[in-house]
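Posting this for the archive.
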Amino acid sequence: MMRSINFRLKPFLFIAVILAASFSFLQAVPYHNGKADKNTSKSTLRSASNEISNMQLYEDLQLDSLHLSKEAFIYAMQGLDSLQSAGLVTNDSIISIVDFSLPSSSKRLFVIDLSSGALLFNTFVSHGKNSGREIATRFSNKLNSFASSLGFYITGNTYKGEHGYSLRLNGIEKGINDNALNRGIVMHSAAYVTEKLISKQGYIGRSLGCPAVPVALHKAIIGTIKNGSCLFMYSPDRKYIAHTRIFKSSFLFPQLLVNEEV
């Protein structure tokens, strides 16, 4: 499913974003002997500009009506900016967001083409069986936990394995999702990710921790996001927000662990 940006903001949203960005700018710019630090000023202005652009994208793609959490979207875009600055993303035109604040009966995978401003995919995605039933509330980075792991991933290469055409996922947040490759956490298709199962039991099937997607869409999704794009798995989980370093510092790396065995 594709939607193009019309580049129009509702007046009240535009005004609110401008005021918020201006306030953030005034608060953030340090002064030395009565003069603002020029480098910091430019960086803050660029950040404010990005926030306005991001909110415009969220509004124009009607992501709120598709139930994507605004917090999930903001975190995803902020994280992508940090990963780009660190040179960790080789395909920065695509971002994928899994919103685990939604139940598995909702289409909670969003794949966005930032270069064209289009929503490429919005579909179902599984969580680990030990993360919960209808909704994921428990997360783990441990081997054999059979739970989903939150945070930022860089997509790797594809391969044919037990579940057919699959995509390796590199968890880059140490202690949060950096065991993804060792745990065999990949994106693959699953027959249990289907609306028929939702109609029968109220939720889709669960994986061993992998974000499994519908059989009919898995090749197209994997082909779009493979090889170096950003994938963010979100939950309003205060433990994750307390421990991630993505939003706490502009640098942060090398505290993050980047797996390159793909």
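The chain has a mean pLDDT of 84. The chain is about 30% helix and 20% strand.
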